[in-house]
Amino acid sequence: MKITEETLLEKEGYRLHILPSKKYKTITIVAKFKAPLKREGITERALLPHVLQKATNNHPNVRSLQSAFENLYGTALSSDGSKKGENHVISFRMEVVNEAYLNDQEPILEEAVQLFNEVLFDPKTEGEGFDSSIVDREKQTLEQKITSIKDDKMSYANMRLMDHMCKDEPYALHVHGYLEDLETITSEKLYAYYKDMIAKDMLDVYVIGDMDQKAIEKLTDQYFSRKGSTNADDDQVSVTKEVKEAREVIEREEVNQGKLHLGYRTYTKFGDDDYYALQIFNGIFGGFPSSKLFMNVREKHSLAYYAASRFESHKGLLLVFSGVDPKDFDQAKSIILEQMDAMKNGDFTEDQVEETKEQVIHQLQETMDNANGMIEVLYHQMLSGAEMPANELIDNIRKVTKEQVVQMAKKIELDTIYFLTSKEGGES
C-alpha cells in the first residue's frame, strides 16, 4: 500500500503537515488544537467549537456563515473535541472541492481557507465577549447533550466506569464538560478562555489532496500563522497506575438491560514495541464478530445482547462492553473473565492470529482510504513520537506471532468491574 510522504514544516505558531495525494477530488484541511486535560476550563472547551462555528464578525449569523460555505460548492466544516490519553484535542475539519476539477477555475480554495480563518480567529464578538445569544443557545444545547448521556445507558456506563477506574487521573474528566460549570460561563468568560486557547494550545494543520506545496504553504502562512505563539508542546504524559486489587462497582438505575463493563490496564501505548500484538490480541479477544467475547458470551451462551472490547491507545486501557439481563450478571462476568484467561493461556489458534491480522490490516487500510482517517492515523503517530510509513505499520502487524499475543495478554490486568443494573436485580 503506497501512501504519499508527509511533509512536516515548523511555521509561525503552528506545525504544517502537507500530504500530496491524487486519490481525492477534494482538499481536506484539519486544524487540531491540543492542551493538557484539566478540570478547570473543560466545559469551556466542550462549548467552544460549537460557538465558533455559528458566526464570524464578517458573517454575523448562522445563515450568513452557512451560505458562505455552501456557495463554495458545498464546502463543509465540522468540529469536535476528544481525549487522546491525558490531552484534550479540538479538531476543525473542512473539505473543499479541488478547483483543478472545475471548469471556471475560481479561487475556491483560498476563499474557503479565508472562511476557515474567520471561524478560528475572528469569531463574532460583542464588546469583550462572544455574541451572548449564540453562547446562551449553545449552552442550552450542551446542557441537553450532557443530560442525555444518562439516557444512553451504554455511554453512561462507560463514563461511570472511567469515573471509578481513573479516579484522580486526568483521563476521568468528561470531554463534554459538566452541568455545574454551565451556569457560571458567560460570553466574556468563554471569550477569555478562547483567547488563551488560541494563544497557547499546540496547533497542527493538516492539508491532504492534489495540490501545489508552495501554494499551500503560502496560503496557510497567511491564514493560520499565530504571531507571538511559541506553539510549545505542553504534552501531559499519561498516568500509569499499578493495579493492587481489582474492584467491583454495582450501581442501580431504572434500566431493563444491565450494562456490564470491565476496565483493564494494558501497560502498552501507541508507539510501544508490543502495540501491534495488542491490536491482534484485541481482535481475537473482543474486537471483531469472530472474537471470543462475541462467540462465547453472546452466541454460545446467549447471555449478552452485545459483547465487545476496544483499547485506548494513548492511555493504555482495554475496555469490555456487554449488555446483559440483570439476573445473568454472575454468569456473564465469569464467562468474560474466562475469555481473558483463555487469551493468557494461549487458547487460540495460529489460524485465528493470521485471520485477525488480515482483519486489522483491512480496517487500517479502510481508515487510511479516507482523508480524515489518514490524518487521524498520522496525528496518533505524532502524539506518540512513533511516526512511520503506512507500509511499515502493516509490516509490523504482519510480523506479530502467537507467542507475542500471549505475552501481551499476560501483561493485562483487571482494574474495575462496573455493573449498571435495575433497582431490584443483579446482586452478586
From TrEMBL:
Cross-referenced SUPFAM superfamilies: LuxS/MPP-like metallohydrolase (SSF63411)
Domain Peptidase M16 C-terminal: 184-359
Pfam families the UniProt entry points to: Peptidase_M16_C
NCBIfam families linked: YfmF_fam
MF-aspect GO terms: metal ion binding
Spans through the membrane: none
Protein name: Insulinase family protein
